[in-house]
Design brief:
With about 150 residues, the protein is mostly helical. Helix content is about 75%, strand content about 0%.
Amino acid sequence: MFSSHSSLRIFLKKLISNPYFDGMIYHCIAFNSLMLALDEPRLTDGYQRATISLILNLISIVFVCEMIIKIIAMGFYFGENTYFKDNWNRLDFIIVMFSFLTWFLEALFDSDLSFIVAFRALRALRPLRAVSKNEGKFFFLTKYNL
């Protein structure tokens, strides 16, 4: 869709290679993990429940934007180092697709049905993104018993 010499694609490649971009994604992952820990089924306060849900949806939007940016910058499938050739990006893609599915089901059924709650539970996979972002760093920590 975009040529390899497209100014948008070049800009987005520079963006995703910037350490601040990775830092922002790390912070979103950490904040998402915190919000998932606070989001418990027995939470009775409607305001807290709505706030946590809003924050989780906003973080999901950030992850959707990250996926779109990476797909435009790297290409989706055809090519050498494209988005879908990386297994961690495939995991990210699956997590984002489950977010879309959850949003769709919540809009369609408008109530907390048990299978929608099960799809929401799949958000717990998002912290695995931190592993994908720090794959080499975890080796360093285990190598020196940290």
